[in-house]
Automatic annotation (TrEMBL):
InterPro entries xref list: Ig-like_fold, MSP_dom, PapD-like_sf, VAP
Region ranges (Disordered): 1-28
Family: Belongs to the VAMP-associated protein (VAP) (TC 9.B.17) family.
Any one GO BP annotation for this protein: endoplasmic reticulum membrane organization
Location of the MSP domain: 40-162
Record carries keyword Phosphoprotein: yes
Highest taxon of the lineage: Eukaryota
Described function: May play a role in vesicle trafficking.
Keywords (A to Z) from UniProt: Phosphoprotein
Entry keyword annotation includes Aminoacyl-tRNA synthetase: no
Organism expressing this protein natively: Eleusine coracana subsp. coracana
Protein name, as recorded: MSP domain-containing protein
Amino acid sequence: MPLWGTASAPPAAEGDASRAPSGSGAGAKVIRSLLPTRRRLRLDPATKLYFPYEPGKQVRSAVRIKNISKSHVAFKFQTTAPKSCFMRPPGGILAPGESIIATVFKFVEHPENNEKPLEQKCKDKFKIVSLKVKGPMEYVPELFDEHKDKVAVEQILRVVFLDAERSSPQMDKLKRQLAEAEAALEARKKPPEDSGPRIVGEGLVIDEWKERRERYLARQQIEGVDSV
């Protein structure tokens, strides 16, 4: 299995940190140091990424990420399969209480050794890390390299395949989240509304400005006649 995108301790199984006795070794200390004492982010789904099972195709999953802390928080995705998976957005900064739905893309391989489709085990994992930042700022991945000692692992998500032909609560929820993510993406693409004069073509202004100038010139003519 390829390594995570950035240098860090290998992912621990869920619950290992709580079961490890105090002072049980360097590995337990590393795990405890990576896990934040208080979560900065809330994920939905919390521990899994659901994908429709469509072999030979690129499929999508979604996860809602919400900042539940009182500070601005930067987050970043990492994966063990960077060549076949990517995230949109791969990272960002959330204000307190702000949330975003991230879309995860994955290419599904054909089953091996005559495995039943939905029983195919996927070794790919995704990790979400967080970093507390001082306030609103532009997100750059280098933030996590510059403050490695303050980076916390929020959650490790494992892949779960769903039957694309069958309705289920997980599949219905995934479809809703994907639709919401697409709507938010389209809204960001729209140009912001401008209350000022709109430019039409190159060097031309809308009729409103033309009318203003015509009224101004007419007023100048009237004042000139009155003075004569």
